[in-house]
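FAQ

Q: What does a record look like?
A: Structure on top, sequence underneath. For example:
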C-alpha cells in the first residue's frame, strides 16, 4: 500500500513503512509515519485531494495570545471592547457566543491579523486539549482577534463542507498526525496548509452547505436560550432559568446529532458507500417521534 508517497511494506504488527531520508528529516517521530494513518486516509486518494493551502483566501499567520508582559489585558466593556476568541469558547457545533471574552485595543493592534468573519473556521494551535480542535464561526463577530487560533477563511459556499470534513475521521487524523512537540503539542502554518481536502463534486459540497444550515439554526437557538438562561440567573428567576436551560440543552443536542449525521455521511461518500446526501431534519423527526 502506497499512500501520499509513503509505502507500507508490511501491514502486520510491527508495521513497516518506507520513506525517503530527506522527508524523514522533517519529522523523525515514528508516529508521524505510522502505517495505521495510511490505512485510514487511503480512501482520500480516490478523490484527488488538494492541500488546504490552495483553498485558503486569507493570509494564514502564526497566532499568539494576549500577553500581560506586553501591557495587554483581558477585561470587560467599556474599558475592553474587542472581542477575544479562544478555544475555551468552542462547542461541537459552533462558537459559544455567551463565552466571548474582551481584550484591550493594545492587544488588538498586535493581533488584528486574526480578526474574524462569519463562516471562518478556527483551529487550535497548541495545548493538549486545544491543538487541532476545529470550530465554526456561525455569527458575525464585531471588532475581534483570537488567542492561539489559526483563522482559516475559504469561499463561504465551501466553508460548511470544509468544517464537516475537518471534523470527520479523515480530517481529525491528519490534524492529529501533524501535531508535534514534547512538552506542549503544536501545529504550524505548514501543517494547516498541508491538510489534504478531497475534491468532491460541487453538487455534493453544496448539499452539505444546505444541510449545515439546519445545524446552525439549532445552534443559534441554543445560544439564544443560554443567553436568556444567564439573564434569568442574574435576576434569580429559577423557573425561567430552568426553562431556558432545558431549551438550550434540547437545541444543542439536536445540532450535535445533525452535525454527527453529516460527518457520518461525508465519511461514507469518501469511502464510496454513499452517493447522495440525506436531509438531516430526519434527526429532528426521530426526536419528535420518540417524544410522542
Amino acid at each position: 500500500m502506497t499512500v501520499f508517497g509513503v509505502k507500507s511494506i508490511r501491514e502486520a504488527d510491527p508495521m513497516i513503512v518506507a520513506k525517503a531520508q530527506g522527508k524523514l528529516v522533517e519529522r523523525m517521530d515514528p508516529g508521524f509515519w505510522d502505517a495505521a494513518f495510511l490505512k485510514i486516509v487511503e480512501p482520500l486518494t480516490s478523490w484527488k485531494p488538494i492541500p488546504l493551502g490552495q483553498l485558503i483566501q486569507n493570509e494564514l499567520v502564526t497566532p499568539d495570545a494576549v500577553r500581560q508582559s506586553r501591557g495587554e489585558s483581558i477585561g470587560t466593556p467599556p474599558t475592553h471592547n474587542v472581542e477575544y476568541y479562544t478555544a475555551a469558547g468552542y462547542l461541537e457545533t459552533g462558537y459559544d457566543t455567551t463565552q466571548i471574552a474582551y481584550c484591550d485595543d493594545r492587544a488588538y493592534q498586535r493581533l488584528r491579523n486574526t480578526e474574524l468573519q462569519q463562516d471562518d473556521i478556527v483551529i487550535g494551535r497548541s495545548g493538549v486539549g486545544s491543538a487541532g480542535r476545529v470550530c465554526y464561526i456561525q455569527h458575525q463577530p464585531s471588532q475581534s482577534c483570537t488567542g492561539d487560533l489559526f483563522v482559516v477563511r475559504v469561499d463561504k459556499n465551501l466553508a460548511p463542507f470544509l468544517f464537516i470534513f475537518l471534523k470527520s475521521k479523515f480530517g481529525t487524523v491528519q490534524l492529529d498526525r501533524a501535531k508535534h512537540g514534547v512538552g506542549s503539542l503544536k501545529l504550524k502554518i505548514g501543517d494547516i496548509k498541508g491538510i489534504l481536502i478531497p475534491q468532491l463534486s460541487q453538487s455534493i459540497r453544496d448539499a452539505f452547505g444546505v444541510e449545515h444550515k439546519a445545524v446552525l439554526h439549532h445552534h443559534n437557538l441554543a445560544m439564544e436560550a443560554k443567553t436568556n438562561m444567564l439573564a434569568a440567573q442574574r435576576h434569580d428567576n429559577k423557573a425561567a432559568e430552568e426553562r431556558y436551560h432545558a431549551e438550550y440543552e434540547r437545541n444543542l443536542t439536536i445540532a450535535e446529532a445533525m452535525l454527527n449525521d453529516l460527518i457520518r455521511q461525508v465519511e461514507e461518500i469518501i469511502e464510496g458507500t454513499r452517493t447522495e446526501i440525506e436531509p438531516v431534519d430526519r434527526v429532528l423527526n426521530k426526536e419528535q417521534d420518540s417524544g410522542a
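Q: Is there anything notable about this one?
A: The longest strand covers residues 6-10.
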